[in-house]
Every structure is written in C-alpha cells, then in structure tokens.
Design a protein that fits this description.
Blueprint lengths: L5 E6 L14 E3 L7 E2 L7 E2 L5 H4 L6 E3 L8 H19 L8 E6 L13 H4 L3 E7 L4 E3 L4 E10 L15 H11 L16 E9 L3 E10 L2 H21 L4 E10 L3 H4 L4 H12 L5 E2 L7 H8 L5 E3 L11 E3 H18 L5
Parallel strand pairs: 1-6, 1-7, 7-14, 8-13
Antiparallel strand pairs: 2-5, 3-4, 5-15, 8-14, 9-11, 9-12, 10-11
Helix pairs in contact: 2-9, 4-5, 7-9
C-alpha cells in the first residue's frame, strides 16, 4: 500500500468489578430530560442533575441496562462503531481509503489486552482505540503504570509461647501501610495530573503477608518517585525488625503514550481534523487510566484513543447516546479519507 494502513481497535471484555451477565439493554428514544429509573432496581436512577452530560442529550436515543448489570458499552460501543465503519465503507466503495485493519482484543480491563498481539499480526502504520467517553474526547496521554508486590515473612510460633520469638507479619504490614502517605498520593486525594500509590489488595496471616500496589503517574520521574518511596518505607520497616524478611518487587506495566506520540503528532492532528469535519469540538485531555493504545504506542504503533460516548462505565448506571456513537463512526470515516492523502 502506498498510503498508511490504519487499524481500529476495540475490546470485547467488560469490567470485572460488576456483573455483565444477562444484560437487558433498554433504548430510551428521544430522551426528554427527565430522570431515568432502571426497572430491575428502581434505586438506580440516571438524573441529569447529577449527570450533566446526560442533560445535554435531550432528543437523543439513550441506551441503558436494566439496573442490575453493566450495559457493557465499555467497550461494546467501540465494537459497534468498528463494525458500522466497516459496513459503511463496504457499502460505499466510492469513499477513498487505504488498507484498514479491524482488531478486537480481550482482557483490556485487566491490562492484558494486547499481551498476545504482535505488530506483525496487526500490520498497520497507525492505530486508534475506540474506548473513550464524551463526544470529542481525544486521548494521547495516559498514565505511566507500575505494579508492586510487597512480601513480608515474619517468624511464626504458637502464640501461647511466643514471648521474644514471634514476629507478626501483619503488624509489619500495618506499619508499612500507615507509614505511606494517607492525605496525599492516594487515589482518593488526587486528581488531574497528580499520581498516586494505591494499595488494592492485602492477604495473609501472622506468618506471611502480601501487599499489592499499583503506582501511577504521567511523568517518568513521578512514577520512579512513587516506587522509591514505597521501597524506602519497606526498608525502614525491615530495619526495625531484622528477623523479618521484607521484599518489594516493582514490575513495569505500561507507559504514557505521549512520550512517543509527541515525536509525530500526525495521528492526533488528523483525528482533530476528522472531528472538526464532523462538527465535533476536539477535547484533548489526559486519561487517568490506560488503554490498549498505551501499550501499542510503546510497542511502536502510535495509537491514540477516540470517543465512543460511553458514560458511567463499570457500574449499573452505564449509558450511551446512539447519536454519539454515530458521530464517532463519522469521525472514523473522515479519518480513513484523511490518511488516504498521507504519504506512508
């Protein structure tokens, strides 16, 4: 191909935090702006007062679940947009475009969406994930992410005969947790461009404990600083009790896609142009999360993230506007035509 090959990607898994089994989607046509009560759990109500974006969608066709499951718009919306794009281009051969690749990934929600995908498999020059939120959202900045495992091994003995012998791993774990920042650098105390250290799982007993952390920041230096702080706290607690073993292992997960995209902003600039052609105002904002595109960009395929319209994802209030999905499809149709004019 003399023009760049463009890949569009979506993920087929849904968030594990809430049930996605037995989804009963409901289409609320020509939404009138009033609260939407979900029938299978009337305590679940979508209200434009608490969801301002919903208030802007009067006249749209709104899709929800029934109140007891996810809708799964994250990321079935992306799948639907990719399939509608393909159907539209096949039905309209007069639309100029280069080679297009469509890819659906599993396990995105647990950070392994592209673990088994090679760039040779994808055979593209540029990619776009369809996994974003409000109309106009265009993401080329994501977290840089590491995970950390702290393993504490104490000295186990019968508690009735433990004087001067027992080293309780749970006590040492508690010291580590309480020594780490409580009022800064946690998910609940940070926003915008601030990173954090997040303890998300703790398991074990007096003999052995495991603490599982994720570390997040937009900058390499910030991410390294979170890791260094965690390691310093572990060292300090280990020094306070030399009979215990405290191991802290940090493993890289993915990096901010901006580090690579800022070298060639064409994928972002053309996406902005495609949105403007569709009458959508581009909203460039960093995502406090990661996408399959974060990892693909790091692997060598520049892959920004485009909007689908999905809202309140990962919970029972998840909803989406059909018209937002249609706009996302229109943006993709514009994009393939813009890339058809670009040199490879």
């Amino acid at each position: 191909a003399r023009t760049p090959t463009v890949a569009f990607l979506a993920h087929v898994d849904t968030a594990p935090q809430f049930s996605g089994t037995g989804v009963k989607p409901i289409v609320h046509r020509n939404y009138d702006g009033s609260p939407v009560v979900l029938p299978d759990d009337p305590s679940q109500v979508l209200s434009p007062e608490s969801l301002p974006y919903l208030g802007r969608k009067m006249g749209d066709d709104i899709v929800t679940a029934s109140g007891t499951t996810l809708l799964g718009a994250d990321d079935k919306a992306g799948v639907a947009i990719c399939m509608t794009l393909a159907a539209h281009l096949l039905a309209h051969p007069e639309i100029p475009h280069g080679d297009i690749r469509i890819c659906f990934t599993p396990d995105e929600e647990i950070g392994r969406g592209v673990a088994h995908l090679t760039l040779d498999d994808l055979a593209a020059d540029v990619g776009y994930t369809l996994d974003g939120g409000v109309a106009g959202e265009l993401v080329y900045e994501s977290w840089s992410a590491d995970k950390a495992l702290v393993k504490i091994t104490g000295v186990s003995i019968h508690p009735g005969y433990a004087k001067d012998k027992l080293v309780n791993a749970l006590h040492l774990a508690a010291q580590i947790v309480m020594t780490l920042p409580q009022h800064t650098r946690t998910p609940e105390t940070t926003s915008e461009r601030q990173g954090f250290i997040h303890l998300y799982r703790m398991s074990g007993d007096a003999a052995e404990v495991e603490l599982h952390f994720i570390l997040r920041d937009f900058e390499r230096a910030g991410l390294a600083a979170h890791g260094e702080l965690l390691q310093a706290v572990c060292r300090a607690v280990a020094l306070s009790e030399p009979r215990a073993q405290v191991e802290c292992t940090i493993t890289p997960q993915y990096r901010n896609m901006r580090y690579w995209l800022e070298d060639d902003m064409r994928p972002v600039d053309l996406a902005k142009q495609a949105m403007q052609q569709a009458g959508v105002e581009p909203l460039l904002q960093p995502i406090r999360g990661g996408t399959d595109g974060s990892r693909l960009t790091e692997m060598g395929l520049p892959t920004p993230n485009l909007f689908t319209g999905m809202q309140e994802f990962h919970g029972p209030l998840e909803w989406i506007s059909v018209q937002d999905m249609a706009k996302a499809t229109e943006v993709c149709v514009n994009l393939v035509q813009l890339w058809a004019k670009e040199p490879k």
